[in-house]
Amino acid sequence: MLDALAADVDGGFDAFVRAHAGAVYSAALRLSGSRADADDLAQETFVRAYRSLRRFDPSRVRALEPRAWLLTITMNLWRNGLRDAARRPPRAGGAPGRALPDPAPGPEEAAESSEQARALVTLLGELPAHLRGPVVLRHVVGLSYAETAAALRCPQGTAKANVARALARLRLAAAEGRPRRAGPAPRPGRAVAPRARKESR
Amino acid sequence: MTAAAARVPDVSPGALRALRTEAPAGFTDAVLARVGVVSGDRFVRVQSPAGDLFVAFGEAGINAVWPVALFEGDPARFVARHLEETGRVATAASRPPAGLRGALRSGRGGALRYDLTGLSPFERAVLAKTLEIPAGEVRPYGWVAREIGRPRAVRAVGSALGRNPVPVLIPCHRVVRSDGRVGNYGFGPPMKRALLHAEGVDLERLERLADAGVRFVGSERTGVFCVPSCVHARRIGPANEARFPSAGAALGAGYRPCRHCLPVSARDAS
């Protein structure tokens, strides 16, 4: 498929989008928490990807790791969106005293099939951004740790540690049976700053 | 991780994996529209009994068939024509859709998926009925009209078949004039004759019968009458063959209609 894309971006893009739409949309839905935002985020991912592909040399297109590359774009768009939203003054009637727009949707909006899934979606929405990204990529989308790290632009150890932290946080919140907002939430724009940190092993 | 008690949500990796979903319907088309790429079809060049064909297909199925000869073998001219007809760019595919080659060899296109978007319900009904006509047999336009419950729409059947986007595969060449003549064809009567000849239809015999005013033949031995090209009619020995100018004449002579070729509708016959 990448060969077709390298030879002719316009001709191969249809199949490329179809092949990766599920992964990108799933990530966008679980990151953003609402179907409308997910649609925007996933579409924008492919639009950016298309513009890049038009610029790339064929050899560069052939060498792509398409899923990790696409999800890098998704992650960047999402984090930029959170940062921009955080900078905007809260709308009148918005929840007071919250730095972040609530990314967690109402359960009806997500329209999950089971109560279990609804509860899990709510818990995911309560995770801080720097932990939600890794766990969504690794376990919802099903990327390998290598791909997850590539998509997050961080060392593999950091990706693994953040996935483990996210799972631990989810388990704790599930056991407590209530949303959890404990712990210092990092600023979203810098949610994953792996190179600045010492890798913890 | 413990198996959750009733109230504790399952937060295992397995439960997270179950949150993966498909993109909504129309997602790909929306993306392609935004970047200005028209959702594309693929096409292949395949052999058929009446010369090579360009066959175009998309996600939903096969959507166009054209004789290669019409474009003097030039794929670019075919792509231009396909774009004109459908608004979609077709790009060369490395492999034909599953079952296409077999369907062209056997003359049985019933198992393939077709994308007939843009056709009216009437046109779809005509094509669906036409798909039931077996290789090696022919039926009159009036037969198709009657079998889809629109017995007076004979001319409309002809028009609908003329707009068949997937000729050869949906065998509109197997629908002939009610007087037994081969009749017209989108790519010219010679191609229609070539397709029928390749399927083993004895056109000369059918035309001799047509010239003699014969519309149906029956077997004196079995008392069953058929359209002349019916697989059962072809087995009637010359000594046993009865010839009728109309279904009424056959029924009047005590013959019953064949259940395979349905020379009169099943309801009329009962």
Label this structure with key terms.
A: 201 residues, mainly alpha, Butyryl-CoA Dehydrogenase, subunit A, domain 3, globular, disordered C terminus, B: 270 residues, alpha/beta, Double Stranded RNA Binding Domain, 4-stranded mixed β-sheet, 11 helices, disordered N terminus
Please give a structural write-up:
The complex is a heterodimer of chains A (201) and B (270). Chain A has 201 residues and is mainly α. Chain A has a single domain (2-88, 104-182), classed as Butyryl-CoA Dehydrogenase, subunit A, domain 3. Chain A contains 10 helices and no strands. In chain A, helix 2 (9-32) packs across helix 5, helix 3 packs across helix 5 and helix 9 (145-152) packs across helix 10. The longest helix of chain A is centred in the N-terminal third of the chain and has 24 residues, at 9-32. Chain A is globular and about 55 Å long. The relative contact order of chain A is 0.12. With 270 residues, chain B is of the alpha/beta class. Among the domains of chain B are: 38-106, Double Stranded RNA Binding Domain (2-Layer Sandwich); 203-270, DNA Methylphosphotriester Repair Domain (3-Layer(aba) Sandwich). Chain B contains 11 helices and 10 strands. Chain B has helices at residues 13-17, 27-35, 75-86, 100-106, 121-130, 141-147, 154-162, 189-198, 203-211, 247-252, 266-269; strands spanning 41-46, 53-58, 61-67, 90-92, 139-140, 175-176, 216-219, 224-226, 241-244, 256-257. A 4-stranded mixed β-sheet of chain B has the order 3-2-1-4, covered by helices on one side. Chain B has a 4-stranded mixed β-sheet with strand order 9-7-8-10. In chain B, strands 5-6 form a two-stranded parallel ribbon. The radius of gyration of chain B is 24 Å and the shape is elongated. Chain A binds chain B through residues 8, 10-11, 13-14, 17-18, 21-26, 29-30, 35, 39, 42-43, 46-47, 50-51, 112, 116-117, 119-121, 123-124, 135-136, 139-142, 167, 170-171, 173-175, 177, and chain B through 1, 4, 7-11, 13, 15-24, 27-28, 30-32, 34-35, 37, 39-40, 59, 89, 91.
